[in-house]
Design a protein that fits this description.
single chain; two-stranded parallel sheet; 210 residues; 4 helices; 36% strand; alpha+beta
């Protein structure tokens, strides 16, 4: 290309000088109209300005829910349970009993029954996503309580329906029959739903419709 450049310039005199002059005029025009461009190359400044404009669009507002909400479990007989929205817990937790893990086709599965008021005696089976170690408290209150040794719980991926929004979230299985709410929604599930919690409100969402 270097060898051809003198011939090209000879055939099209002033081509490069016109292009360079156009670039200079464009640069100077931007710098004249916006003081921001005086301190840095206009390209970097323009990209920075565009990124600032795009931020409000990218940051979606969370949906506000109460401390307690109704949530449906489409994969567990369509059961609708009262759930506690707990930002202090990490994973969601479902009240279950007769929990038994087994192997099927080389994968780990779990069978269980719901440990909820009025639940049928139906046995459910679900593939295990992982086994978690949970540090529990002697009571479910947010106050500091005596710590209990970590327990291992099977974790499954379950579809949950909150209002008209359905998400698949990790849920660990444990007997919560001694608690008031058979379903606990932790921070991971709250993020999946794009949810924020107002502890002064309860049951703000419509009944599950997924």
């Amino acid at each position: 290309m270097d060898a051809l450049r003198p011939l090209w310039d000879a055939e099209r005199p002033g081509l490069h000088s016109h292009a360079e002059r156009g670039n200079d005029l464009f640069d100077n025009g931007l710098k004249f109209r916006c003081p921001l461009f005086k301190e840095a190359p206009y390209v970097k400044s323009l990209l920075a300005l565009l990124s600032l404009v795009a931020l409000p669009v990218l940051a979606a507002e969370p949906t506000l829910y109460g401390r307690y909400e109704y949530i449906a479990l489409p994969e567990i007989g369509g059961e609708v349970l009262k759930a506690k929205m707990d930002t202090g817990a990490l994973t969601a937790s479902l009240s279950a009993k007769d929990i038994e893990t087994f192997t099927r086709d080389g994968d780990e599965w779990v069978r269980f029954r719901l440990a909820t008021k009025g639940a049928s005696n139906k046995v459910y089976e679900h593939k295990v996503a992982r086994i978690s170690k949970i540090k529990t408290r002697s009571e479910e209150d947010d106050d500091d309580k005596e710590a209990i040794e970590p327990t291992k719980r099977p974790v499954v991926d379950l579809e949950l329906c909150l209002g008209n929004v359905k998400r698949t979230v990790e849920v660990n299985l444990t007997d919560r029959s001694s608690f008031n709410y058979p379903l606990l929604i932790g921070a991971k599930a709250l993020r999946e739903f794009g949810a924020a919690v107002n502890p002064a409100r309860r049951f703000t969402a419509d009944k599950p419709d997924c």
